[in-house]
Design brief:
2 domains, binds NADP nicotinamide-adenine-dinucleotide phosphate, 478 residues, six-stranded mixed β-sheet, alpha/beta, Aldehyde Dehydrogenase, Chain A, domain 1, Aldehyde Dehydrogenase, Chain A, domain 2, binds SN-glycerol-3-phosphate, globular, seven-stranded mixed β-sheet
Length: 478
């Protein structure tokens, strides 16, 4: 008998009046592991209306009072760590150890968020600084919550990337409507069970489940939503941006992070970094290295080192903590295979891989990839890495910047001056010098530009994006 999970509204767990559910199938068990509610528009509306009401009293608490609830949340998450990790593994096919790390990383993120918020202060200024101004005008500038935040998260970090939105929203006095990825919704239920156990006042957070294609537009366009924090694919993000009302949006979208390898790079170190950065969790990470732009002078050596590294990657079930695991669904695996086939048809060299078992794609390395191949530009979100050989730094920068994406980039070189010079030219939110691309540590700003996003995440940036400044001007008339 499969578990049917309820949605969370006004401090209660409920079945939907729609009497419809969405079946959740494990990508590696290939069997149903549960059902979540496909809630109705009326229930979405009820949640948002309740959030608007509860947000006012929630905002009146002090930041420390709100922080106490979130600290309790972290305690409950740790108490449920193994249970939640098991669910994450079964639901999105992430290695068990990585799933445990995701829960612990989430606890650390929430705690840092509380501490950062508690030590955030406003500012004051007097009129005297401006021409003709006087000391009798004093401006007091504070940050206030936006109201009701719609937090929409992706499948690949179903707990961490959800909490990265929920925690800053709540600590700053907002109410939250949380829409998890459907493939990740059970993980979302579990993390909210922990928040419920922490005693969060009812109405402050609501968990709405159901397919984004069914309730997504209604959520996004609802007049009760004051801000949207979205993480997911570029196509979805662009759609949301097109239909949403005039409200603040923060979007973290797709990526095609390049690794630029200069001729002077430490190739053994570089190869280790690239393999780790390109293939972990079957490359189902927005910040995975998704193309290598290597100077032709050292390309043969690098490819040989990469081949050895890729061939040593563990492949199989997430229950055995394999690096390469079945992709989230068959459609995703079809897409990755399509990109591999296109590249090979157009003359790419298969170094290793191009083997598939259902939705398990074996780690694949393609050499001599050229700009006419789709894999040079499209985001596979799967374990295939294209090697593009370049003749100069300038060519590497040009190819980096011709991408529609601009999330992160890596530069591997021993020349730090060159590294900074190239960083200045690369169109990306972040550039890693001599490291694989990655989001953490989570207090760093996390930024996507172009089709990789808008606005910024990272704890401080998220606190800022979920609040606005309010100015109180004191006029001393003496
Ligand atoms: P997705 O298919 O775009 O879904 C993301 C979220 O949007 C899910 O919760 C989805 O719900 C929801 N959604 C879908 N249509 C919607 C609509 N019309 N209105 C409102 N919400 C809607 O992305 P994914 O497959 O979960 O994640 C993979 C993609 O996300 C990749 O492109 C990856 O690069 C990107 N990503 C980016 C980052 C980053 O930080 N930059 C991090 C992780 C992932 P359903 O699941 O119910 O459809
Ligand atoms: O795709 C999720 C994105 O946030 C990557 O996180 O820590 O694996 O670089 P990380």
């Amino acid at each position: 008998m499969t578990n049917i999970y309820q949605f969370y509204i006004n401090g209660e767990w409920r079945d939907s009046s729609s009497n419809e559910t969405v079946s959740i199938t494990s990508p590696y068990l290939r069997k149903e592991i549960g059902k979540v509610q496909a809630i109705s528009r009326d229930e979405v509306n009820e949640a948002i209306q309740a959030a608007k009401v509860s947000q006012k009293s929630w905002e009146r608490l002090t930041v420390r009072e709100r922080g106490e609830y979130l600290y309790k949340w972290t305690d409950e998450l740790l108490a449920m760590k193994e249970e939640i990790a098991q669910i994450i593994m079964e639901e999105v096919g992430k290695g068990y150890n990585d799933a445990v790390k995701e829960v612990v990383r989430t606890v650390d993120l929430i705690r840092y968020t509380i501490e950062d918020a508690v030590h955030t202060h406003g500012e004051s200024m007097t009129g005297e600084n401006f021409v003709g101004g006087s000391k009798s005008k004093i401006a007091i500038v504070n940050r206030v919550p936006l109201g009701v935040v719609l937090a929409i998260s992706p499948f690949n970090y179903p707990v961490n990337l959800a909490a990265a939105k929920i925690a800053p929203a709540l600590i700053t006095g907002n109410a939250v409507i949380f829409k998890p990825a459907t493939q990740g919704a059970i993980s979302g239920v579990k993390m909210i069970e922990a928040l419920h156990k922490a005693g969060l006042p009812k109405g402050v957070l609501h968990l709405v489940t159901g397919r984004g294609s069914v309730i997504g537009d209604y959520l996004v366009q609802h007049s009760g939503i004051d801000m949207i924090s979205f993480t997911g694919g570029t196509g979805t993000g662009m759609h949301i941006a097109e239909i949403s009302n005039l409200i603040p949006l923060v979007m973290e979208l797709g990526g095609k992070d390049p690794a630029l390898v200069r001729e002077d790079a430490d190739l053994v170190f570089t190869a280790e970094q690239i393999v780790a950065g390109a293939y972990s969790y079957s490359a189902q990470r927005c910040t995975a290295i998704k193309r290598v732009l290597v100077n032709e002078k050292v390309a043969d050596q690098l490819v040989s080192l990469l081949k050895t590294g890729v061939e040593s990657l563990s492949v199989g079930s997430p229950e055995d903590n394999n690096t390469i695991v079945p992709l989230i669904d068959d459609r995703s695996a079809d897409y990755v295979q399509e990109l591999i086939d296109d590249a090979l048809e157009k003359g790419a060299t298969l170094v290793v891989g191009n083997k598939r078992e259902s939705n398990l794609i074996y780690p694949t390395l393609l050499d001599h990839v050229t700009p006419d191949m789709r894999i040079a530009w499209e985001e596979p979100f799967g374990p295939v890495l294209p090697i593009i050989r370049v003749t100069s730094d300038e060519e590497a920068v040009t190819l980096s910047n011709e991408s529609e994406f601009g999330l992160q980039a890596s530069i591997f070189t021993k020349d730090i001056d060159k590294a900074f010079a190239l960083t200045a030219q690369i169109e990306a939110g972040s550039v890693q010098i001599n490291s694989r691309t990655e989001r953490g540590p989570d207090h760093f700003p996390f930024i996507g530009i172009k089709h990789s996003g808008m606005g910024a995440q990272g704890i401080r940036k998220s606190l800022e994006s979920m609040t606005r400044e309010k100015v109180t001007v004191l006029n001393i008339n003496n």
